[in-house]
Specification:
This protein is an all-alpha fold and about 130 residues long. It contains 5 helices and no strands.
């Protein structure tokens, strides 16, 4: 979503065409995952030192929609926006941040900056950096 917010800000700076318009920024349709898959991805990336214990109870009944999803079609159609990170990369960024935080919370600001820099490099490599003139 970060690249979407930045792109929308750049578009709004150039034109008031989309002032007040709602836009959703989220994963591509082919990146849908269940909550269980997300939990497993996060757990698999977690460091052994701080690895949480996960217990999934299959016999519990939850009354939740089977799919909760943002419709990002408008962002794609009007802004030509697509996410920078793939699902696996997103899970890795999140768990790396938490692993570092729990291991060395005093240095989290510099680590966060390095992740933002890594994100920007990936965005540039993938042609997803937008600039205004």
């Amino acid at each position: 979503p970060l690249s979407g917010y930045l792109l929308l800000g750049q578009v709004l700076k150039k034109s008031s065409r989309y002032d007040g318009e709602p836009f959703n920024f989220g994963p591509k349709n082919n990146q849908d995952r269940t909550v269980r898959q997300l939990i497993n991805s996060l757990a698999n990336n977690w460091s052994n030192k701080n690895k949480p214990q996960i217990k999934i109870l299959n016999n519990r009944k939850f009354f939740e929609s089977s799919l909760l999803k943002l419709n990002c079609d408008k962002s794609l159609a009007y802004l030509n926006w697509e996410p920078v990170l793939f699902y696996e990369e997103t899970a890795r960024f999140v768990t790396d941040w938490y692993n570092y935080y729990f291991a060395s919370s005093k240095e989290i600001f510099s680590f966060t900056q390095s992740q933002v820099n890594d994100y920007c490099l990936l965005a540039k490599e993938r042609g997803k950096i937008w600039t205004t003139k």
